[in-house]
Structure formats: structure tokens, C-alpha cells
Design brief:
The complex is a heterodimer of chains A (579) and B (167). Chain A is an alpha/beta fold. A six-stranded parallel beta sheet of chain A has the order 3-2-4-5-7-6, sandwiched between helices. By secondary structure, chain B is of the alpha+beta class. Chain B is elongated, with a radius of gyration of 18 Å. Classes of the chains: A alpha/beta (579), B alpha+beta (167). The structure holds thiamine diphosphate and magnesium ion.
């Protein structure tokens, strides 16, 4: 049967199980938007292409299925660069379709032409410029395969207009269903080697102060249950990085929470004092290690990852295990059970009581609210956490509010925390929350955003209202680019340079209402709970709460840049009692 | 090249799919780190679906290991090998046009004989010569031609294959 490029694209996307596409049309992609009308796939029309990219990411984070974005050529493709880079650094499976000028015009500086595959080469796992309509089914099949297997990541497919234009004979070809992939250079190793697993198990059996350092790979590999089984079998503590919040339940007695620059004291210090880091799907990011040469100086390292390029990149691994981290953990469980038959694990009671001593001495801490102050952001988050369903999905922006959200929320389920960890993209929260809601319509989705971040992408609330994706947004409005302000306060002698925003400008309540959302302003602590309860009851439109928070509040604990994790600073009040 | 200098040069042989844009992907990984590619030779292999890229790059060993791992992640890269001069056979081709008056051609001819080079073209006041050989031999030849005045010169960059086993 004859088909054409545009029709074939729709059929290919449907065959991959795509249910929703986030996008915005334009000249070069026009021929594809026509057959879209007849497709059962849902299209969410965004207000800015960056929003489409982050929505596709949010969808992928929440559902585990690849997110799909579709935009036109030139400026639309360049608007997609930030989400692609974001997805690249956080290993998010994404397929992005871009329109391109007609084949004959490529390289002529045609209207809305840019070298999309050239520009996105460094921010995609792979990209394709399709030159022959008949390649479309195979390329789309390959694109989803590459995006979702091995270490997941974004894949871009650039489609010149002529090959999808039904009026062009070049776009017609004999339809086919692709079978398999001809990708001789792509063969990710999934099965871990048994010798490596045995070597790792042996190290664990000798260790007196082991810590499981779990990262985003746990969620990508759908390994949360396996991780829990391993931790309980070993009776070993788990730290969950910013990318793996929820990958091990916060309410579990073995959970130490988030390590790193703004991690809690115990998670930071447990890694630092450990004699064995059982690293599962984590990559020794500089925000976790602090100064690398002083990171966990007494620890041996087991490093399990699907991407061998991570081994020895930052930290030498005594045992590196390449493969899917879920299979690795399952292998470790079997190996440990065998070894346990021959002898018990060492006595770790001293280490355990050291760890619980830290937990008692240095819990997360903030000074209670005082008359005349703005709301305590930590208090707002505690209330939001306690008054929202246990399986609420939280998407966050980047800054102080992100760190507080990660610290104060209790993530007891996987895939409930969505954030931009690697790229640190301000403006991520609102569109990512919308994408998550599109994938998980029955769940409550809160975006926790900063006033700075919110101003970068809030226009997507129009999309949310229009598409009936009723997310809720908590703007922690401190009137500042707060995280930058904090650094200027602490490391630039309180010389504040270009960090002040106006808490009243824009008027967030009016702005929300103008976009068809419910807008609520909260200034006093006693208004916090009623506002949250009201927001949680509204399900027919998005809600924005403008929480007026205290501008001078800082995020603690903190490992200053260039310092080792041994130099972690706790809240000044706690610091005073620490000799 | 002194020894320390030598340490920094590494030869990578990369087998890639013979597709548009692949060279840019490979080169991009060096460029983003600010590593200079010293020489580069690309051509299809005995199988037209694949090309073989020989890259000589000026970089310390530790960062090189990272680049190699990143190269390996490129979807179109099939295989990567680092070849050390000790266990490989290396060849490079150079062609050069040298300024030389008829009366002095004999001096060039001497060099051509010593190096087993070839004369490709002769003009009234210039000669074109070529030499293929190990990169060091090619460099020696180039150095000796230089005093005559080099008008034009092109080296291909080296290509290399693993030495054969004799045990
Ligand atoms: C696109 C982008 N630009 C700049 C930055 C640098 N940056 C990191 S946090 C931050 C401040 C964010 O301000 P806000 O959203 O108000 O959050 P707060 O820290 O006040 O909670 C800035 C400017 C960034 N991460 N992303
Ligand atoms: Mg702010």
C-alpha cells in the first residue's frame, strides 16, 4: 500500500504507543499537523516550544514512557535546545520531531532554516536528518529504541518539509512496518557480569561502614523495589540523590535522604565517613561529592551503571558493574544470600549508632516564624506535604525552593519527584508538572516554584487551563533570585548584585487569574493551611498560590563550593552548639 | 618530537558507519574539550557501509580515556582502538612543491633518491615530489626540503594498522 511521509509519521508514532504529543505548529511542520487531525493521539498545544520539551520530560519522568514533542524549524528548534540539554543531563527518554525546510533549500539560509541536527548534536543522545520519506518508519522506530534503551536520553528527528508533503511525489512510498534495528554501533550491555557482582558482594561482606549511594538510575531502571529488598537484606543505610528522591521511601528507617551541597547532615556525613560506597545508578556529580579529592576519603567504591563512561570518570571504582541496575541489584541479592550462607556480615552496630547520633544531633532545622517576617518556606512545604495526598507528584524549579522541597517533602513512592537536577533549568517546574499531569491525570500534581523561575515559563498555565490539565503551583515568592542572593550574602560579603525581584510585580494572583487559573495570595501563617486545602479541592482548573516567603531565609545544611563534605555547615543555630 | 611531546600524541582508529554527519559528531567530542586534532584520515573500509577514521590527537592519557568512552557512546561509532606506534605499522603520504631552479634540481634528486621518494611533476622553477613512509621519515624529508623553499605541501595524516603476530 502506498503512503506518504506525513501519514507514515503518524502511523509510526502510534505504533510506538504514543498517546500524547506536546507541540506547536509552523511552516515547515505544517504537512504533519494535517494528518494529526485524524490521529487518535492527543496533541497539547503549548505557548512556547521550551514548554513542549519540559512537558514531554515531565510526562516521561512521571510515567516512565518516552515523552514526545513536535515543533517546527528554525526558532522553534532552537527553543527546544534547553529541554533537550536538560533531558540529556538527566537521562530522560524523549523523542523530538522538528520540521526542516525542504531538502532543496537546506544550506541556503532559507526562511526559518537552522542547522538543527548540528545545533543539537551535543545535547541529544542521537539525532537524525531524514532525507528520504521511505526512511521515516525505520528512523522513528530507531529513535524510540535509542531514547528508551541503555542510558535513556533525548533523540531528535529532523524532517524536511518536502518529504512529508503529500503534494510532493517524493513523499510517497510503499508502506512497511519496520522490523528490528540496523544500528551496528549501538548495543547497550544490560546483563551484568557475575564475577563483578561476586566481587561487589565480597566487598560488602567485609565492610563495616557501608552506605548505599543511590541515584537516578534506580528510577530509570524501575529498580525501587529491588533496592528496598537489597537494603533490607543487608540492613544498610541508603542515601537518595536529588535525582532519586522517592526511589527509596523517606519513611523507611534505613533512609538517610538527600546527600550533597544542600543535603542533610547525616546523608552527607555518612557518605563522607563510609568505608564502602555501594553506588547504584549514581554518577558522583560535583553537587554530591563537593571537592572531589576530599570526598569519602576512606571508602572503597562499588559502581553499578549502565553507562561505562561513568566508571572512573570522577572517582575510581574498586568494582565497576556494567549493566541494568535492577538486574545488578537482583544479582547482588542472590550473591549476598549465597555468601550469608557461609558467614554473617560484620558487626556494624557501632556505625549504626554513630549514624543515628548524627540524625539526632543534626536534623533539618529552621527558626520558627516571628511576627513581622515573611512566611517560612520550610513551613509552607511541611503544610503542603501534610495536606496533600501521599502519592502527590511534585515538580520543582531550580533554586532555594527546590532544595527545600527536596528536603522537607516526604517522598514515599517512586516517580513522585520531578526536577531538573543536571542542567538546573529555571522554568522547568510549570511545564514539567503539566506533562506529568497529562501522563497521570488522576494524581494531584503540585509544582513548587520560585518567583524567578515562575516568570520564565508561567505562560504554560494557559495551556494547562485550555487543555484541562489542572495542576497546582506553589510559588515561594521571596522577591529574590534567592539561591544567588544566598551565595552573594555568604561568599560575596553581602554585596547583592542584580538579584532583587519585586514580590508584587507581577501581581501573581492577577496573573494567574488572567490565565484562567485560580489565584490565591497567602501572607500570614494561619492562611497557609486553608489556602492549601482550597487548592487541593479545586480540580477543574489550575491553581496558583503566591506564598509570600521570608527573603532572608537561607538553605542549610550547605557545603560551600570548593570545600569538602567534611566542611558541611549546618543551620547557624545548630552550628553554635557544635564545638 | 621529544619524548614528553610524544607521550601526548595518541592514535585512535575508529570504525564508524559511513553516513553523513558522523565525522562532525566524532570531531565535536574533541572540540568541546578544546583538544586539538593533530591529523585525521577518513575513508571507507573494504565494506562500503563503514569508514575507518585514524585520528592523531594531542592530549594527556587520562582525559583521552574519557573521550574514548564518550566516542564509544556515539550511535554511529562501531569500534575504537588505540594504536601505539610500538605495535602498529604507520604510513603517511606527503606531496610537496619545492622552489628549485633547473641548475639545482640535482640536489633535490639526491634527497629523492635517499628517501626513495618520487618526482611527480617538474616545472621551470619548481618540482613536485611525493613520499610515503612512516610519519617520522616523512617529517625528516620535509625538513630537508624546507631550505629550498616550499611553495605548497600537503600531508595526509597518518593511517595505521596493527602489526602482525609472529609467534
Ligand atoms: C535558566 C537559568 N538561568 C539562571 C540560573 C541560575 N540560577 C540558579 S537558582 C537562581 C535563582 C532562582 O530564583 P527563584 O526562582 O526565585 O528561586 P529561589 O532561589 O528564590 O527559591 C538562578 C538565577 C539557572 N539555574 N537557570
Ligand atoms: Mg525567589
Amino acid at each position: 500500500m502506498q503512503t506518504n511521509g506525513g501519514k507514515a509519521l503518524m502511523k509510526s508514532l502510534e505504533a510506538e504507543g504514543v498517546e500524547v504529543i506536546f507541540g506547536l505548529p509552523g511552516g515547515a511542520i505544517l504537512p504533519v499537523y494535517d494528518p494529526l487531525i485524524d490521529s487518535p493521539m492527543r496533541h497539547v498545544l503549548v505557548r512556547h516550544e521550551q514548554g513542549a520539551g519540559h512537558m514531554a520530560e515531565g510526562y516521561a519522568h512521571a510515567t516512565g514512557r518516552p515523552g514526545v514533542a513536535m515543533v517546527t524549524s528554525g526558532p522553534a528548534a532552537t527553543n527546544m535546545v534547553t529541554p533537550l540539554a536538560d533531558a540529556m543531563l538527566d537521562s530522560v527518554p524523549l523523542v523530538c520531531i522538528t520540521g526542516q525546510v525542504a531538502s532543496g533549500s537546506i544550506g541556503t539560509d532559507a526562511f526559518q532554516e537552522c542547522d538543527t541536527t548540528g545545533i543539537t548534536m551535543a545535547v541529544t543522545k542521537h539525532n537524525f536528518l531524514v532525507t528520504d520519506a521511505a526512511d521515516i518508519p525505520q528512523v522513528i522506530h530507531d529513535a524510540f529504541h535509542i531514547a528508551t534503551t541503555g542510558r535513556p536520553g533525548p533523540v531528535l528527528v529532523d524532517l524536511p518539509k518536502d518529504i512529508v508533503d503529500p503534494n510532493n511525489p517524493k513523499s510517497h512510498f510503499e508502506d512497511y512496518d519496520p522490523t528490528g534495528h540496523d544500528l551496528p554501533g549501538y548495543n547497550p550491555k544490560v546483563e551484568p557480569d557475575l564475577e563483578d557482582i561476586r566481587a561487589a558482594a565480597a566487598l560488602i561482606m567485609e565492610s563495616k561502614r557501608p552506605v548505599i549511594y543511590s541515584g537516578g538510575g534506580i528510577l530509570k531502571a524501575r529498580a525501587a523495589d529491588a533496592l528496598r529488598e537489597l537494603a533490607e537484606l543487608l540492613d544498610v543505610h541508603v542515601v537518595t540523590t536529588l535525582m532519586n528522591r522517592g526511589g527509596f521511601p523517606d519513611d523507611h528507617p534505613l533512609c538517610l535522604g538527600m546527600p550533597g551541597m544542600h543535603g542533610n547532615y547525616t546523608a552527607v556525613t555518612a557518605l563522607q565517613e563510609s568505608d564502602l560506597l555501594i553506588t547504584l545508578g549514581a554518577r558522583f556529580d560535583d553537587r554530591v561529592t563537593g571537592r572531589v579529592d576530599g570526598f569519602a576519603p576512606g571508602a572503597k567504591v562499588i559502581h553499578a551503571d549502565i553507562d561505562p563512561a561513568e566508571f572512573h570518570k570522577v572517582r575510581f571504582a574498586d568494582v565497576a558493574i556494567q549493566g541494568d541496575v535492577r538486574l545488578t541489584i537482583e544479582g547482588l541479592i542472590r550473591a549476598i544470600r549465597e555468601l550469608c550462607g557461609t558467614g554473617a556480615q560484620p558487626d556494624r552496630s557501632a556505625w549504626k549508632s554513630t549514624v543515628s547520633g548524627w540524625q539526632e544531633r543534626f536534623p533539618l532545622f529552621y527558626e520558627p516564624w516571628q511576627e513581622g517576617q515573611g512566611l517560612k518556606p520550610q513551613y509552607v512545604l511541611e503544610q503542603l506535604r501534610d495536606r496533600s495526598p501521599d502519592d502527590t507528584i511534585v515538580a520543582s524549579g531550580v533554586g532555594q525552593h527546590q532544595m527545600w522541597a527536596s528536603q522537607y517533602w516526604k517522598f514515599n513512592h517512586p516517580y513522585t519527584w520531578i526536577n531538573s537536577g543536571g542542567l538546573g533549568t529555571m522554568g522547568f517546574a510549570v511545564p514539567a508538572a503539566i506533562g506529568a499531569k497529562a501522563g497521570m491525570p488522576d494524581r494531584t500534581v503540585w509544582a513548587v516554584d520560585g518567583d524567578g523561575c515562575f516568570q520564565m515559563t508561567n505562560q504554560e498555565l494557559v495551556t494547562a487551563r485550555n487543555e484541562n490539565l489542572p495542576i497546582k503551583v506553589a510559588v515561594l515568592n521571596n522577591g529574590y533570585l534567592g539561591m544567588v542572593r544566598q551565595w552573594q550574602e555568604l561568599f560575596y560579603d553581602e554585596r547583592y548584585s542584580e538579584v532583587h525581584l519585586q514580590p508584587d510585580l507581577p501581581d501573581y494572583k492577577m496573573l494567574a487569574e488572567a490565565m484562567g487559573c485560580v489565584g490565591i495570595r497567602v501572607e500570614a501563617p494561619e492562611e497557609v493551611q486553608p489556602a492549601i486545602d482550597r487548592a487541593n479541592e479545586i480540580d477543574d482548573r489550575p491553581v496558583v498560590i503566591d506564598f509570600r516567603t521570608e527573603a532572608s531565609e537561607n538553605v542549610y545544611p550547605m557545603v560551600p563550593a570548593g570545600k569538602t563534605n567534611s566542611d558541611v555547615i549546618v543551620h547557624p543555630t545548630q552550628e553554635a552548639t557544635r564545638k | 618530537m621529544n619524548a614528553a611531546h610524544n607521550d601526548r600524541y595518541h592514535t585512535l582508529v575508529v570504525r564508524v558507519e559511513n553516513k553523513p554527519g558522523v565525522l562532525a559528531r566524532v570531531a565535536g567530542l574533541f572540540a568541546r574539550r578544546g583538544f586539538n586534532i593533530e591529523s585525521l584520515a577518513v575513508a571507507p573500509t573494504d565494506n562500503d557501509n563503514f569508514s575507518r577514521i585514524t585520528i592523531v590527537v594531542d592530549v594527556e592519557s587520562a582525559p583521552l580515556e574519557q573521550v574514548v568512552k564518550q566516542l564509544d557512546k556515539l550511535i554511529n561509532v562501531v569500534e575504537i582502538r588505540e594504536l601505539s606506534p610500538a605495535d602498529s605499522v604507520e604510513r603517511e603520504l606527503m606531496i610537496a612543491t619545492v622552489e628549485v631552479e633547473a641548475a639545482e634540481r640535482g640536489q633535490i634528486m639526491d634527497l629523492v633518491r635517499i628517501f626513495e621518494a618520487r618526482v611527480l611533476n617538474v616545472g621551470t622553477s619548481a618540482m613536485m615530489v611525493s613520499l610515503s613512509g612512516s610519519p617520522t621519515r616523512v617529517s625528516d624529508f620535509e625538513q630537508l626540503l624546507r631550505p629550498f623553499g616550499i611553495i605548497d605541501l600537503q600531508r595526509t595524516g597518518k593511517v595505521a594498522l596493527l602489526s602482525l603476530d609472529r609467534t
